[in-house]
Amino acid sequence: MKKFFLALIIGIFVLSGLGAGAIKSNDVKPAFETNIYQEPSASLVPMAYTHTVLVEVGTATWCPSCPASNSAWHTIYASGNYDFEYTEMVYDMNSAANQRFNEFNPMWVPTSYFDAGEYVYPGTSIPTFYSYLNSCGGRVVPDIVANLDVAWLGSAKMDITYSVLNNEASAYPGKMRIYVIELESTLWNDYSGNPYNHALLDFAANQVINIPAGGSISDTITWDGVTEGFPGITQDNIQVILAVFDDTFHISYSDPPSGNPFNAYYSDECVAAIPTVQNNPPGKPTIDGPAEGKPNVALEFTFSAVDPDGDDISEFVVNWGDGTADQTITGPFTSGEDVQASYTWAASGSFVITAKAMDDKDAIGPVETQPVTIPRSRAYAPLYRFLENHPQLLLILKLVLHQI
Q1: What is the Cβ-side half-sphere exposure of residue 208, based on CA atoms within 13 angstroms?
Q2: Which listed site, 100, 240, 256, 383, has its alpha carbon 20 to 30 Å from 200?
């Protein structure tokens, strides 16, 4: 029994060149062993595409064949020569990836699905990848135009705003998926210990659509990484992909040419966006200091402002209310940090201090005010101070004045 179990484990994890490992048997597919480093022929140069092609790659951390695919797709995408978006569906580590991969009735890992099944390739072959990208990119598709904007809200949360316009003369029924992917995975490494690229985390939307002729659909979705189990993601390492799929099924095969059939609903439109930081200005600053002072005597004030995004405060702009130019107190200061500044009024009067804060992204917050009174100088101020320091003389003076 132990020998059988050991043989079973070895059979699952054995690598056969750059082919694909079986996920439903102990065999390894031998037919897809091609040279990953082979350069594309002249006939496989990039061409003008009718739409952005979507590539979904089924993969697994236990798969010895999968690092080659992970590296190949990353290299092709980084070149920028081909109009496509892609995601690695690490099915053994992620429930969303597992569910989507199983919709293809898979047999092997890695397997690349072009436009949701127009072409399928188990294994790794850069020339074949180029060829299938070009073939999909040349397919005539309905006139569907999607737009996508992603605003990073902080704390692993984003607003995903989309619109899909149907320029056809008839309705467009189908499905829309919005993929949230991590450009370099901080969660999962491939069999060689390298981070997965473009790893699928979750679907922000996975819904049936029906867009009327000449009409459109649009919405804003708030996706919360903390709630979905990904609190550690960062704005600069996330991409969002929107893909639109028609409702006409085609028979395709996850084990070409005729094994593991599935209903393929082709992707007709695909667009991607990187989250941009939605910057909010700092709040009203607080002004803490005396409400009254004397001419030509410096008064000390403390300013602070809280930025809702946690950004640094780059400067405070203060006007002391006496007709002089604004004073800029230059940072940077951390959000909520106390900052001291002093000012001397040369003349008496009532003044209004105004202050506002600017964050390190140049967003300026609202103005806060505080009144300050500088009383008139008394002509006999030295005498009063003398008498205050000699209370008996002050009492005698008061009695004398009372008798007059």
Answers
A1: 2
A2: 256
